[in-house]
Write a structure and sequence with these properties.
The protein has 225 residues and is of the alpha+beta class. It is built from 8 helices and 4 strands, in the order βαβαββαααααα. Strands 2-1-3-4 form a 4-stranded mixed beta sheet, covered by helices on one side. Strand 3 and strand 4 form a beta hairpin.
C-alpha cells in the first residue's frame, strides 16, 4: 500500500493511526507543504488520483481511495482484525455518527483556529473575532464530547475510528491553546487513554516534531525538513 499524505494534515494523521493500529505496512509519500504556500503546487500524483487534489490518498494495487472516512471503511473491509468499528449495527451507527461529527462539526472550528493562530497572518492581520468564535465553538463541542464519554472508556464501547478522528482534532486544538479544561473531566481522561496507545503517541510525536521544526524555520527563513 502507498499513502499520499501531508506532514501536518489532520485527515492524513487519522489514516496513519488506523494503519498503525491495524499493523499494516505502507509506503508514505509526503506531499510538499510549507507555511507560506501550504500545498501549492499540488503533488502531481495526488492531482491525478483525487479530483479534489487533496490528501490523504491510499493506493492499494488497483484500488484508489481518497477520503479519510472511506479509507477507514476500506481498511476495515480489507483487514478486519483488529476491528476499528463495532460489530453490532447500533454500535456501528454510533461510531459513524461520531466520526462524521468530528469531520463536520469539530473540524471547522479547529481549522479556523489553525488559520488564525498557526499560519502566518495575512495583510489584514489576525481575525480576533474568528478566533474567539472558534474557541467558543470548541468549548461547546467539548461539553458534548464530555457527555458522550461519561461512563465510557471509549466513544463507542471499544476503541474505534470515532476515537481516532475525534482525538486528532482535539489534540490539534490543544496544541494551539484550546485544550479541554478541568470542567471536561471525562474528555481529559479519555485524551490520556488515547495518548497511552502507541500508534497514537507515535503520530502525535511525529506531528509535534514537524511543527516545531516548521516554526523554528519560520524564524530563520529556512524550509522545514
Amino acid at each position: 500500500m502507498k499513502l499520499y499524505a501531508g506532514p501536518l494534515s489532520l485527515f492524513s494523521a487519522k489514516v496513519r493511526v488506523a494503519l498503525d493500529e491495524k499493523g499494516l505496512a505502507f509506503d508514505e509519500v509526503s506531499v510538499g507543504w510549507s507555511l507560506q504556500h501550504r500545498y501549492e503546487p499540488h503533488h502531481p500524483d495526488v492531482a491525478a488520483l483525487n479530483p479534489k487534489g487533496q490528501v490523504p490518498v491510499l493506493v492499494d494495487g488497483d484500488v484508489v481511495v481518497y477520503d479519510s472516512t472511506q479509507i477507514f471503511e476500506y481498511l476495515e473491509d480489507r483487514s478486519p482484525e483488529p476491528p476499528l468499528y463495532p460489530r453490532d449495527a447500533g454500535g456501528r451507527a454510533r461510531c459513524r455518527r461520531l466520526e462524521a461529527a468530528a469531520d463536520e462539526l469539530l473540524f471547522p472550528s479547529v481549522w479556523s483556529l489553525i488559520e488564525e493562530a498557526f499560519y502566518p497572518a495575512g495583510a489584514a492581520g489576525r481575525d480576533d473575532t474568528r478566533l474567539e468564535r472558534a474557541r467558543a465553538a470548541l468549548v461547546g463541542q467539548y461539553v458534548g464530547l464530555d457527555k458522550e464519554l461519561t461512563g465510557r472508556a471509549w466513544l463507542c464501547h471499544e476503541f474505534s475510528v470515532a476515537d481516532i478522528a475525534t482525538f486528532i482534532l482535539v489534540q490539534a486544538a490543544s496544541s494551539i491553546g484550546a485544550a479541554p479544561t478541568a470542567e471536561h473531566g471525562a474528555l481529559r481522561a479519555w485524551t490520556s487513554r488515547m495518548l497511552a496507545r502507541p500508534a497514537v503517541s507515535r503520530e502525535v510525536d511525529a506531528m509535534n516534531r514537524f511543527a516545531a521544526r516548521t516554526l523554528a524555520a519560520r524564524t530563520t527563513d529556512r524550509p522545514a525538513r
